[in-house]
Amino acid sequence: MTYTYTPHGVCSRQMTVEIENGAIKHVDILGGCNGNLKGIASLLQGMRVEDAIERMKGIRCGMRPTSCPDQLATALQEALEQTV
Predict the structure, then answer these.
(1) How many other CB atoms are found less than 10 A from the CB of residue 42?
(2) Which residue from 26, 59, 68, 84 could staple onto 18, CB 3.0 to 4.6 Å apart?
(3) Which residues of the chain fall below pLDDT 50?
(4) Residue 22, burial from CB neighbour count under 10 angstroms (0-12, 13-18, 19+)
């Protein structure tokens, strides 16, 4: 399944995740800190969705109440909810 999410309160503009058999197959993020987000996307490949959510949920960016990883966790959570 492929899920597209529009993040809120961060620099990135769009997140697309591809999930297969409960694991993250591919992540694509538009905008934000390009190198950091490419690194995060690469590290997430093959990881179970629930594990990725647990690791990224609640991460903040400076004084912001959220971050790109936190928003990615939200996207993954929403994607999971659609599969149920």
Answers:
(1) 9
(2) 26
(3) none
(4) exposed
- Model pTM score: 0.94
pLDDT at 39: 96
Main-chain dihedrals φ then ψ at residue 60, nearest 5 degrees: -110, 155
Q: Do 45 and 26 meet the contact criterion of CB atoms below 8 Å apart?
A: yes
| Packing angle, helices 68-83 and 49-56, rounded to 10 | 150
Token pair of 69 as six digits: 């990883």
Distance CA 35, CA 50 (A): 24
Q: For residue 73, give the H/E element and its range.
A: helix 68-83
Is residue 23 within 8 A of residue 47, CB to CB? The reply is: yes
CA distance 24 to 17: 7
